Amino acid sequence: MKLIFLGPPGVGKGTQAKHICDHYDIVHLSTGDILREEIKKASEVGLAAKSYIDKGALVPDDVLLDLIDVRLGMQDVQNGYLLDGFPRTIPQAEGLDNIMTSKSHNLDAVISLTADENELVQRLIKRGEDSGRSDDTPEIIQQRQAVYWKQTSPLIDYYLKRNALKEVDGIGTILEIKDRIILTLSSNA
Ligand code: ADP
Predict the structure, then answer these.
(1) What is the best residue among 88, 117, 127 to mutate for testing ligand 1's pocket, by most ligand atoms within 8 Å of CB?
(2) What pLDDT does 189 receive?
(3) Range of the domain at 18
(4) pLDDT at position 125 over 60
């Protein structure tokens, strides 16, 4: 099973991704987590990414595409994976198509999690109070929402056109949403 999770910051992609990966026994690949790990290690990629992340801007596409190309070649993901937070731009989606084709990987579905924007900002402000993430301040949260609508939401259309997109309502309890996603993935609709 090879999946992409799409949705604005705060919609619960990370939380749901963990449940869905447990359910299908596939690997959770969160580019946000990978980049934060690189920052912790003070690697070259981490140092390059930090200034963008702290501003709420996107890290350049070529950095992400190199990371994903290497990661999708590793042995542990050959059974399946869920991409969380990637792709985030049309060039990333096109690059991902090439990477997957070169590795003979088939995309099973793109899950688009939806929620009202005000609800999202409130959730993120609350999360910022205990996450300690440098980009969970109210100004940067607004900035990340704006980046999502401008740069990432065109991907909804991109994947709709190739019949890969499945929309799931992201409002409800964690388990309700998890069940919705599994139901959506198991139906052919
Ligand atoms: P959220 O979904 O809550 O915004 P993430 O953990 O997915 O948080 O990402 C945090 C930050 O990491 C983003 O604001 C961006 O700067 C960077 N980032 C993560 N994934 C990508 C990506 N695919 N392309 C560019 N930048 C990315």
Answers:
(1) 88
(2) 55
(3) 2-188
(4) yes
- The CATH number linked to 115 is 3.40.50.300
Sign of CA dihedral 12, 15, 17, 19: negative
pLDDT tens digits, one per residue of 126-178: 888 887 888 888 899 899 999 999 999 999 999 999 999 999 999 999 999 99
Please report the atom of ligand 1 found closest to the CA of residue 56: 14
Q: Give the whole-angstrom CA distance, residue 35 versus residue 53.
A: 9
Residue whose pair of structure tokens reads 């996107």 in the numeric block: 58
Tokens found for residue 54? 């702290």
Average pLDDT over residues 55-75: 96
CB-defined site of ligand 1, < 6 Å? 9, 31-32, 35, 52-53, 56-59, 64, 85-86, 88, 92, 135, 144
Total domains, the chain:
1
